[in-house]
Design goal:
It is built from 12 helices and 12 strands. With 296 residues, it is an alpha+beta fold. The chain has a 5-stranded antiparallel β-sheet. The chain has a 5-stranded antiparallel β-sheet with strand order 9-8-12-11-10, with helices on both faces. The longest helix has 22 residues, at 274-295.
Length: 296
């Protein structure tokens, strides 16, 4: 069972109540309606399973469990009686967002989300956290309970993934389609290569970029059937720009799946290789002429 010292404010500041009680039991006492013994036991067990910390309405730490201490790198003595800001970056503490954070909690508003905090060793960590104001019978906030879990690895992976996407967006032509081939969006590089505005292509069919003989073919239908099945396609494709001129793209069509494995969209990543293909065709034509002359 996890125990705590109950800090009670008096005229001189904070004094320590000598009696020890379980964390879960004390917090049940703070709510305005009665709870069964079974419910109290469940809450007490919960407090031992997840990182938790509590504050006064002014943000002073009143209690913390071992899981929270382990995640942040502190000892109990180092955090009890300290302000919440010891876990935050100086920039956040000095911001209006920080002031509004505590203002909202003091008004009884719960706050939840992914939040950036600082480990004792100075490293940035990310917590998925919920701050819950606890009210007395008069409806006054008397304590803030925070429940948190470390999501640093997930957030860092997400940031890395976002960085990769941004790099791809800067360096390649990118367009997304519905599984049926209707255009959802395109980046500036794709727009530039094809000579359209985004407004002109959004909601239109992928077929607008294709040679008529290809988009009317069974091969074209097979192309989108494969993508709907979640199969990616890589190759060199001849397309038509807004002026009807031939554009060659070296591209990959990448189906994006939801949690149930269903294709929700298709992302096409492409490079303009028109100049390269033109040179190859010219070289091939010259070789053909040389060969013909030699035969003659």
């Amino acid at each position: 069972m996890f125990y705590f010292r109950h800090l009670i404010p008096d005229k001189g500041g904070m004094r320590t109540q000598s009696r020890y009680q379980p964390w879960g039991f004390r917090n049940m006492q703070l709510f305005t309606h009665p709870f069964s013994t079974a419910w109290r036991d469940k809450f007490s067990a919960f407090s031992q399973a997840v990182p938790m910390i509590s504050f006064t309405p002014q943000g002073i730490v009143t209690e913390v469990n071992d899981l929270f201490l382990k995640g942040m790198g502190y000892t109990r003595a180092e955090v009890l009686g300290q302000p919440h800001k010891i876990f935050c970056t100086p920039e956040f503490v000095a911001s209006d967002a920080y002031r509004l954070h505590w203002q909202g909690l003091q008004q009884g508003k719960s706050i939840s989300g992914n939040i950036k905090r600082v480990h004792k060793n100075g490293e940035v960590i990310w917590l998925e956290a919920t701050y819950v104001p606890v009210l007395n019978k008069q409806g006054k906030v008397i304590e803030i309970i925070k429940i948190a879990s470390d999501v640093t690895e997930h957030i860092n992976e997400s940031h890395e993934h976002q960085g990769v996407l941004q790099a791809i967006d800067r360096s390649t032509a990118l367009i997304t389609f519905t599984p049926d081939g209707n255009i959802l969006s395109a980046n500036a590089n794709f727009i530039k290569v094809m000579g359209y505005s985004l407004h002109q292509i959004q909601g239109q069919s992928h077929a607008m970029f294709c040679l008529p003989e290809w988009h009317n073919s069974s091969e074209y239908r097979s192309h989108w059937q494969q993508l709907k099945k979640g199969e990616f396609i890589v190759g060199r494709f001849e397309r038509l720009n807004s002026r009807g001129q031939s554009v060659w793209l070296e591209a990959s069509y990448n189906p994006v799946l939801d949690d149930e494995g269903r294709v929700v969209k298709v992302v096409k990543i492409a490079q303009d290789i028109t100049q390269q293909m033109t040179q190859q065709r010219q070289q091939q034509s010259m070789m053909n002429h040389v060969h013909t002359g030699f035969v003659e």
